[in-house]
Write the structure tokens for this entry.
Amino acid sequence: MIAQGFTLFATEIGDCAIAWGEAGIVGVQLPESDADAARARMHRRFPEATEINPPSEAAEAARAIAALLAGEQRDLRDIRLDMRGVPEFHAKVYAVVRTIPPGQTLTYGQVAARLNAPGAARAVGQAMGRNPFAPVVPCHRVTAAGGRMGGFSAAGGVAAKQKMLAIEGVRPQPGLFD
């Protein structure tokens, strides 16, 4: 995916970043340790992109993401994502995961079942680990079997996933936050 530009934006959990191209959002970056680290990650992911003021579509997406991370029950499904270059199976996984409302979770197995691929829980997990659009594709809402956290590839790992779920009002269940 080719990015025309990117920008950093402040959220309740730190500075995030968003990159866009002519066909929509090409990447979202959850917070790194600081703004310079987030900026460096965007330069690695999108070396052709420059940090510039976002067009209205990307600016609105950044505002919606910031609102979600501040605890508003925002539905981010209307944010246009550029899925060119995303493997077909991953795109299907992302479409299912985008239907999970704030404050709710599905397991990797449940996502696989919704794809009519009941043996594909591990492949769903791999797609989540490569998600270039978090939290627009809310991979933090996908847990391992039995409600356990599973992995989270964003900076901060499982602790970041727990924090994002807590912001959305997910109440710990036995084993969920172990």
